């Protein structure tokens, strides 16, 4: 964490062993102290309100709005924490619709006994990530659950963004002949959470790809608005996203196994545990479906951004096998990618 963020973490609670109590959720002085000394201290901006609702200027044009809940376990992991993840997840959902993130609200459910210092770190991460993404946290809510009634801290965020003129994206818009692009190596977030739980005794240097991606999407839209699908590959990973697109558009998708980018460490962990990287969650990767003629320009734009510098085309949309994802293996054979099953890793976001 950089020096600026570290300084912002300092609060009356950050250097003590105090914990959250039921009184902090009762609406009295302790609630006000918690809000002022943790949340207001980090989220302060001209639109943040202490009233019942934020009053905001309405942007011209259409808006996108999304809500997401975050229950990741563990709450702190290499590359981020639940606070950073909560902002990234909402910003990225807006970005996938071609919307510039504007405003965010957040609701906390905190378990009695949760360390104040960790709560301050989560708030600091949210503030830093919101600043990076260009979104303002404008309102929120805090509830305290009794010991054992929640697991640490849960966060729900709602985001509002301004749609880019001329952009219409949907999983139903994929067309035969389109290219399928991923914006970087896949499966890192899911692998990071799996290792952080220490259930398997595996040591590997894997860091979550958790990142806000509006800058990535904006670089593409500055190049062309002729983009059919943008999806962030979170729960269920790239494989699940592709099956969703195939079903919504009633098309087939053909992948090239050699082109799918997987970090060596992730590949090794998946090999030991018999996991398919295509079904491990990402929190900083997009699947983009666009006309073939736009692919070179899109890839060039993506590769100018640190969060998508390893973007690559991994396949194409076809008329064959509608509703299915097939793959050309490394030895040239054709196979059907198994459909997504149950949750491989619960509570990864």
Keyphrases for this structure?
349 residues; alpha+beta; 7-stranded mixed beta sheet; 4-stranded mixed beta sheet; 9 helices; 13 strands; disordered N terminus
Describe the structure.
By secondary structure, this protein is α+β, with helices and mostly antiparallel strands. The chain has helices at residues 3-9, 29-43, 82-96, 116-133, 188-196, 214-223, 237-249, 264-273, 295-302, and strands spanning 63-70, 76-77, 80-81, 99-111, 136-145, 153-163, 179-182, 229-232, 252-256, 286-290, 312-318, 325-328, 334-336. The protein is built from nine helices and 13 strands. The strands form three sheets. It has a seven-stranded mixed beta sheet with strand order 8-10-7-11-9-12-13, sandwiched between helices. A hairpin with a 2-residue loop joins strand 2 and strand 3 (80-81).
Summarize the entry for a quick read.
With 349 residues, the protein is α+β, with helices and mostly antiparallel strands.
Give me the secondary-structure topology.
Layout: H1 3-9, H2 29-43, E1 63-70, E2 76-77, E3 80-81, H3 82-96, E4 99-111, H4 116-133, E5 136-145, E6 153-163, E7 179-182, H5 188-196, H6 214-223, E8 229-232, H7 237-249, E9 252-256, H8 264-273, E10 286-290, H9 295-302, E11 312-318, E12 325-328, E13 334-336
Helix pairs in contact: 1-4, 2-4, 3-4, 6-9
Q: Give me the side-by-side strand order of the main sheet.
A: 8-10-7-11-9-12-13
Q: Which value, in Å, is the CA radius of gyration?
A: 21 Å
Helix content: 25-40%
The number of distinct β-strands equals 13
The proportion of residues in beta strands is 15-25%
Shape assignment: globular
Give the N-terminus to C-terminus distance in angstroms. 21 Å
Low-confidence segments? 1-12
- Class per helix and strand makeup: alpha+beta
Order of H and E elements? HHEEEHEHEEEHHEHEHEHEEE
Whole-number mean pLDDT: 93
The largest pleated sheet is described as: 7 strands, mixed
User: What is the number of helices?
Assistant: 9
């Amino acid at each position: 964490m950089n020096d600026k963020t570290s300084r912002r973490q300092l609060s009356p609670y950050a250097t003590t062993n105090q914990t959250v109590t039921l009184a902090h959720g009762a609406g009295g002085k302790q609630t006000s102290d918690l809000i002022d000394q943790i949340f207001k201290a980090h989220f302060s901006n001209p639109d943040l309100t202490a009233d019942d609702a934020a009053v905001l200027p309405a942007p011209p044009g259409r808006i996108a709005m999304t809500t997401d809940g975050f229950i990741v376990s563990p709450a702190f992991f290499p590359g981020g924490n639940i606070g950073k993840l909560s902002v990234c997840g909402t910003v990225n959902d807006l970005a996938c619709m071609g919307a510039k993130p504007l405003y965010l609200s957040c609701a906390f459910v905190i378990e009695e006994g949760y360390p104040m210092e960790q709560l301050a770190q989560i708030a600091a991460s949210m503030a830093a990530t919101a600043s990076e993404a260009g979104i303002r946290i404008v309102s929120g809510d805090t509830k305290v659950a009794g010991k054992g009634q929640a697991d640490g801290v849960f966060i729900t965020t709602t985001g509002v963004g301004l749609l880019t003129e001329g952009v219409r994206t949907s999983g139903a818009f994929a067309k035969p002949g389109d290219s399928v692009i991923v914006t970087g190596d896949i499966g890192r977030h899911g692998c990071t959470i799996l290792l952080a739980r220490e259930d398997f005794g595996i040591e590997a240097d894997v860091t979550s790809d958790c990142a806000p991606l509006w800058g990535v999407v904006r670089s593409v839209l500055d190049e062309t608005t002729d983009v059919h699908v943008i999806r962030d590959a979170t729960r269920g990973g790239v494989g699940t996203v592709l099956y969703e697109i195939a079903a919504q558009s009633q098309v087939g998708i053909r992948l090239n196994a050699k082109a799918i980018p997987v970090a060596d460490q992730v590949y090794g962990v998946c090999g030991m545990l018999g996991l398919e990287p295509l079904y491990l969650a990402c929190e900083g990767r997009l699947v983009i479906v666009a006309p073939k003629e736009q692919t070179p320009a899109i890839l060039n734009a993506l590769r100018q951004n640190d969060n998508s510098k390893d973007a690559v085309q991994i396949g194409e949309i076809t008329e064959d096998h509608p509703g299915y994802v097939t793959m050309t293996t490394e030895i040239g054979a054709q196979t059907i990618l198994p459909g997504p099953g149950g949750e491989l890793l619960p509570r990864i976001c």
